């Protein structure tokens, strides 16, 4: 008959078998460590559900850790809590990362990575991780990413002698629009104006914004020229207003095939 012995620290001792050998087994009560995780992804419930699935798998692997997950809908509250030294241990989603970084809210993840012998950067897309650095520090770890690109209309591009094996600028696109305008051809389907403007400026965002000194260069010659080009492009034959990227009643493919050069917002993860 096996016997159990419990000491004053509530450790449990008993004998058990390890193959053909008997050995003393010790069981110790451990408190679960709780980690608070906020997710702020407005109108993206599928992301929240994905996070819940990941958390379940994590907790199954690390039984001594409990993740308290909150799908947050109040960014102002998140800001207040974090900037006063409170709030979640981990946040994911859409938030003013640079504000948190410059105010010393975030931990440099290099310290954790360097201390973890099991973490191998080669297991991940290093370009995505490196693209998240701020100087030498790594305050943000991407958990997912998408690639955004335009799908070209091969027949229209070839019929109009438009080469695609070059690094285009927005000025190049404007000139191509003028080239095909008389033929009733549009550059792309309709898109929200803010998305188009973002596409034009986001690659140079670190130039327009001096994060460390908290200064903006939106009065610069380059930014004014970008805005002027944006207005000219939008007033021309850039968008085919009847060819919606995500229409409710199905895409009108004949519009895309007959007189639209590019179709935007294709994603792959």
From TrEMBL:
InterPro entries in the cross-refs: Bact_solute-bd_prot1 (IPR050490), SBP (IPR006059)
UniProt name for this protein: Extracellular solute-binding protein
Species for this entry: Lutispora thermophila DSM 19022
Classification via PANTHER family: ARABINOSE-BINDING PROTEIN-RELATED (PTHR43649), POLYGALACTURONAN_RHAMNOGALACTURONAN-BINDING PROTEIN YTCQ (PTHR43649:SF33)
Record Pfam families: SBP_bac_1 (PF01547)
Domain of life of the organism encoding this protein: Bacteria
UniProt keyword list: Cell membrane, Lipoprotein, Membrane, Palmitate, Signal
């Amino acid at each position: 008959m096996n016997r159990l012995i419990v000491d004053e620290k509530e450790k449990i001792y008993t004998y058990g078998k390890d193959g053909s050998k008997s050995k003393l087994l010790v069981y110790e009560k451990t408190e679960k460590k709780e980690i608070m995780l906020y997710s702020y992804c407005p109108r993206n419930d599928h992301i929240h559900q994905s996070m819940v699935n990941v958390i379940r798998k994590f907790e199954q692997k690390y039984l001594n850790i409990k993740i308290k997950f909150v799908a947050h809908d109040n960014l102002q509250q998140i800001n207040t809590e974090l900037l006063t030294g409170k709030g979640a241990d981990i946040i994911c989603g859409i938030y003013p990362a640079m504000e948190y970084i410059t105010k010393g809210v975030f931990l440099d993840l290099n310290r954790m990575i360097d201390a973890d012998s099991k973490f191998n950067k080669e297991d991940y897309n290093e370009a995505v991780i490196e693209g998240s650095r701020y100087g030498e520090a790594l305050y943000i770890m991407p958990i997912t990413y998408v690639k955004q690109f335009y799908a070209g209309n091969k027949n229209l591009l070839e019929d109009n002698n438009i080469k695609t094996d070059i690094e285009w600028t927005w000025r190049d696109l404007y000139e191509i629009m003028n080239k095909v305008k008389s033929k009733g051809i549009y550059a792309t389907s309709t898109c929200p104006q803010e998305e188009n403007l973002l596409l034009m400026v986001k690659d140079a965002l670190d130039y327009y914004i001096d994060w460390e000194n908290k200064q903006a260069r939106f009065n610069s010659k380059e930014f004014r020229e970008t805005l002027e080009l944006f207005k000219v492009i939008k007033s021309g034959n850039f968008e085919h207003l009847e060819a919606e990227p995500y229409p409710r009643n199905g895409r009108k493919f004949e519009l895309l095939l007959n007189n639209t050069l590019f179709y935007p917002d294709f994603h792959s993860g």
